[in-house]
Specification:
Helix content is about 20%, strand content about 20%.
Length: about 400
Amino acid sequence: MRVFLAAFLLAAPVQAQSPPTYQAPDYANPASWLCQPGRTDACSGDITASVVAADGSVSLAAAPPAKAPPIDCFYVYPTVSTDATPNSDMTADPAETSVAQIQFAPMRGICRTFAPLYRQVTLTALRDRMTGKGDTADRVMAYRDIAAAWAHYLAHDNKGRGVILIGHSQGSGVLKMLIRNEIEGKPAASQMISAWLAGTNVLVPQGQSVGGDLKSTPLCTNAEQTGCVLAWVSWRDEQPIGPTSLFGRTTQADMEVACTNPAALGGGRAGLSALLPNRSAIVANSAAAPKWAKGRNIYTPFVALPGLLAGECMRRDGAHVLSVATVADPADPRTDTFPGDVVVDGQVSPAWGLHLVDMNVVMGDLVTLGRTQGAAWLQQQQRLRQKSL
């Protein structure tokens, strides 16, 4: 199996111990960040989208950065490092830069973008673990790096601003720990607008919105709620969720994997505002991008397909997932499918679902939600200031 490219590992429980000589990266050094405000980096490049309508017509949607965004976003990227060691170094490789462009750069229209490098568990470690060669990666070090980056951000950059935490897969697992250890019950909780933990299992008591992995931080149930968490793992509507699936299910009694649909936090089915990368989705063995529309060549970094996708949080096959349906018309010129599956030896892996595009199938919805949640948080702060006068 070509598990080297089998992509993003569900954040495993921390077992390895960091050595007593742990030394945090120098987060005062700009080179320790993939993205920081006001510079040319992974979050400042072209994020133009080609909007392909149902009749095959194409228009362009540019997304310039906000001139003075009133809130911040803090992003922790998934397992993408191609370094040959179990933990990555602090030099960004093309995969780390690329994933920030695909998953995080579109947020620059609503917030200042902060994305620290960290010594994450690498694809090499994932390959070794999946082929029975052992697990020598230091997950504690990966977490401690992000905790150090967060502390540096709070001390030097935050200045009382609201911040949205954004992660995917390993990054979401690390942020889940950060919320539990450094945010819940601490002053930083008042600065957290929300946390978006895509592509990892966040456990809650069955049918409940608070408790489980996070003790006091509830799931978001409406767009103007703040101090809450979004969590989802996505799956094609027509694809069974087999017993080997890595996401959506748990063996813990009375618990279930949380699912919040960014397009419909109150529940139910809703159209998804996908913003899909116009290339293989993040890793080389994902399904290739299709021909988006007959007779059309698309050259922009992203593609939007209004009305093509719909999603709903569903309990099926013993799992709880964001079930994504394609609402296609075979008679029109637009594609009837979209990429996002993990492909191993030419076959779609049944264990991963749409893990590679967990973020992108709802990217437009996330941008809209971030703007709404940010405005709600700012209004709350204004009311608090007025009360204190």
